[in-house]
Description:
alpha+beta; five-stranded mixed sheet; 7 strands
Amino acid sequence: MQFRECHQAIYPAHFQLLKLMDLMDAQGLHHxxxxxxxxxxxxxxxxxxxxxxxxxxxxVIENAQKLGEPELAFRWGHALWPGHYDVFSQLLQxxxxxxxxxxxxxxxxxxxxxxxxxIVINADEYVFIYWQDEVGVSSILRFLVEAYSTALxxxxxxxxxxxxxxxxxxxxxxxxxxxxYAVNLGDNVQFNMGVNLLALxxxxxxxxxxxxxxxxxxKELLRRQADQKYQDIAPGLIGQLTRWxxxxxxxxxxxxxxxxxxxxxxxxxxxxxxxHGTAFQRIQDQARLSICLYLLHQxxxxxxxxxxxxxxxxxxxxxxxxxxxxxxxxxxxxxxxAFKARAIT
Length: 345
């Protein structure tokens, strides 16, 4: 199974990172402050020829979190898309509706949404989009989620020429800078959701943009050009391992089985996961949680049905495990995913 590790340099530094640096410069920060510990130099990044690794990207964002103003992630998000990322930006602007837009971001995530990948789940009432960690970003997850959620809302509103009725849920507690969420993401935001996701009704998800119309021939040409530039980029290790766990969820695979599937020893996989700032159990728990949310909300399964599917001995043990994964009970999560609350909570 092919995968990419966090030390491999694949991200063009003059894409998203340079935009973040411009914003930190505007806040009066100096290059040596936010590049500290990354092994990067401003001149190399500004040259337009430098490629950086996920570890270097993460280190700069960790510094940005410590040094920057609370609104930095949101301001970065507004500046991200469509951006100036060669054919990938052209693809974003060539989309005909939100469904196509999400597909472009998903298919070329390492160029458009580095470190995370948007995953779509079709449910009865809403289409859910959640952010999948691809390379181990636990230390900067909130910053990335704030930025990419802002980027998605900002571009979708621009392409649609009108605001869409997005609903957003975040896994963490309400931050101190709550007003930034209202200003940048609207007031339909909930916290303590166990997962980071956006929701929109099906009609708005496939409704054509009103002012943009690119021919199918142009879209296909842009896709071919993007594929040529993207063909050597393998998926991130954490994302691949999460998807492998989801595909084998009923088997409750062990670390040894995962190591075998990824053609390495148990010790090597443990070492690689530690380098990525995570562990096998944490990845497996997140994979189980995403499957549970799908079964509970989209399939409308009972706790007992989900427990049986995941090979728990009974519903009570399933409830305990679910609360350990996301800090909430299955029944409470069903109510939250219905997004009945309208104000920021």
